[in-house]
Amino acid sequence: MKRHPLDLRSLFAGVLFLGLALMFALDQLDTWSVDVRWIPAIVLLTLGAGGIAASVQRATRPSRS
User: Fold this and answer.
1) Could you tell me which residues come within 8 angstroms of residue 42 by beta carbon, excluding any fewer than 6 positions away?
2) Residue (of 5, 3, 4) closest to 58 by Cα position
3) What's the half-sphere exposure (Cβ side, CA atoms, 13 Å) at 62?
4) Quick one: pLDDT band at residue 7, thresholds 50, 70, 90?
5) Residues whose CB falls within 8 Å of the CB of residue 51, separated by 6 or more in sequence, listed in order
């Protein structure tokens, strides 16, 4: 099986949605209370971190000439 390169955007999006699902599951179990006002900030911070990581990875990857 041929390996493919790591897609950081998809990885960060998956981690983001997994984290949001975990937050809401813990809220339903009355283990942790979710303040909905924090969700847009968490989404933007995670997507921003993913964008920075993808930019750094692309800048440090050797070119295939």
Assistant:
1) 16, 19, 20
2) 5
3) 2
4) confident
5) 9
pTM of the full structure: 0.57
Residue 65 has pLDDT above 60, yes or no: no
Q: Count the residues in the chain.
A: 65
Tens of pLDDT, residue by residue over 15-48, are: 888 988 888 888 888 887 878 788 888 888 888 8
Contact assessment for residue 27 and residue 65, using Cβ atoms and an 8 Å cutoff: no
**What is d(CA 32, CA 38) in angstroms, rounded to the nearest whole number?**
14
Whether the CA torsion 34, 38, 39, 42 is positive or negative: it is negative
Coil, strand or helix at 50: helix
Cβ(15)–Cβ(46) under 8 Å?
Answer: yes
